[in-house]
Amino acid sequence: MSSQGRPLLRHATGPGADGLVMGIDPVSAGWDWVTFHAYRLAPGMAVRRAADDQERLVLVLEGRARVRAGDRDLGIVGSRASVFDRVPAPVVVVEPGLDVHVEATTDAFVGIAAAPGGPVRRTAVVASEAIRVETRGSGSTERTIHHLLPPGGDHAGRLIAFEAYTPGGHWSSYPPHKHDTEDPPREARLEELYYFRFAMPQGFAFARVYTPDRGLDETMTPMDGDLVLVPEGYHPVGVPAGYDCWFLNVMAGPGREWRFTLDPDHAWLMDWSPAAPRAAT
User: Fold this and answer.
1) Residue 105 vs residues 20, 60, 89, 173, 182: alpha-carbon distances, Å
2) Is the predicted pLDDT of residue 83 greater than 70, yes or no?
3) What integer pLDDT is reported at residue 202 of this predicted model?
4) Residue 41 near residue 16, CB atoms below 8 Å
5) The domain containing residue 146 runs over which residues?
6) Count of structural domains, the chain
7) CB 114 within 8 A of CB 61
C-alpha cells in the first residue's frame, strides 16, 4: 500500500557528503504541503536554503548550530546532546522570503521542515524553556509531548510540530485518530510525518495507517532514523517493551487547527483531553 503509489515508510540513509540522512518533499511523498530533511553535521558543516515562498522550521535536535535568516543572526541554537535528554529542542521559525543558513558549531543533528507560507509571517527563536511539556494518557498509553510549534494562534503561518517520548511497552497517537478531512469545526485536514529515533539503535515501533474503508491499511515497523508518512487515515504507534522511542511530528495543511476524529471502534479508550494552545514566548 502507498500514497499515490509511493511508500509510506522511508528508511534512513547516509549520511551523504552534505550530512543528509532523510529527505522528503511533496513530489516524493505524493502529497501537497510538507517538506522535511534531517542532517548529521560535523562542526563547520552548513546547510543553506534559498529564499522562496516556503515557511521553514529549523530544529537543532542534538548539538549546537548557528542559525541565520536573511540578514538576521539568530545566534547559536541547541539545548541537548541527545533527543533522549528530555529537554525540549529550541524552535526557529523563518517566514517566507528569507534565506536560511545553519552552520554546526558542534556535532549536530538538525531537522528542517517547510510548507507553503500561510497568513502569518513570523521569524523567531523559541527557547527550550518556553516550550510546553505535557504528560498525555495513562498507564500503557502514557507519553510525554513537547509542543514545539503548537497549532492555532500566531506561532506560524502553516507548520505545526511536536516531539514525543514513548516508553517501551507504551502506545502513542492513541486512541487512533485521523485529520484528513477539511470539515470545521469537527476535523481539519493535515498531512503528518513521524520521524523516529530509539534509545537503543536496534529498537523499532509498530505504526499503522488505515482509512475507515480500509482502502489504505498498512502496518510498518520503523527503526532508528526511519520516517512514516501519514497522508490520510488513522495512525496509532506502538512501541515494544525495552525500546524507548522518540519521534518528531511535523504537520501542515490548509490551516493550523489540529482537529481530529477518533476511530469510533476505539474511542472508548480516550483518556486525555486536547488542551487549548498556549502562546509561545
Assistant:
1) 17, 11, 16, 34, 42
2) yes
3) 97
4) no
5) 9-269
6) 1
7) no
For residue 92, what is the domain's CATH number? Answer: 2.60.120.10
**Percent of the chain at pLDDT exceeding 90:** 93
DSSP 64-82: EEEEEETTEEEEEEEEESS
Q: How far is the C-alpha of 19 from the C-alpha of 51, rounded, in Å?
A: 21
274 falls within a domain:
no
pLDDT, tens digit, for every residue of 138-178?
Answer: 999 999 999 999 998 899 999 999 999 999 999 999 999 99
Q: Is residue 39 part of a domain?
A: yes
120 within a domain of the structure (yes/no): yes
Query: How far apart (Å, rounded) are the C-alpha atoms in residues 38 and 224?
Result: 13
Assess if residue 280 is contained within a domain: no
The three three-digit cell numbers of residue 87, written as one number: 529537554
Cβ contact 31:132 at 8 Å:
no
Q: What is the DSSP string of 169-209?
A: T-EES-S-EE--S-BTTTB---EEEEEEEESSTT-B-EEEE
Task: Please check whether residue 6 is in contact with residue 29, taking contact to mean a CB–CB distance below 8 angstroms.
Answer: yes
Of residues 194, 245, 275, the one with CA closest to residue 29: 194
